[in-house]
Design brief:
0% strand; single chain; 4 helices; mainly alpha
């Protein structure tokens, strides 16, 4: 089983909403530690979360986790160096 599937399976585990959010962020962080290209891995995870939200619209956890992944993508983009000024 690949790491993305392991992460998604962990996110599906039953728990209270607050606990799922806290643990979900930890599982996502663990998934990213083992990832090669963080941006590619985050985008793959975001796609999987969107599909899960479509299949389980009554579970808010998927929207919450999408927000977390989008925040990580934004932080990753903000760390990229700015291009040199044009002369």
């Amino acid at each position: 089983m690949d790491r993305l599937q392991e992460c998604m399976n962990a996110l599906r585990r039953p728990a209270s909403e607050a606990e799922r959010v806290h643990l979900g962020e930890k599982w996502i962080d663990q998934y990213l530690q083992a990832a090669g290209d963080r941006e590619v891995s985050l985008n793959r995870l975001l796609d999987a979360l969107i599909k899960e939200a479509e299949q389980r619209p009554s579970e808010d956890i998927w929207i919450t986790m999408q927000g977390y992944v989008q925040l990580l993508l934004w932080k990753l983009e903000s760390e990229e160096p700015l291009p040199p000024p044009e002369e």
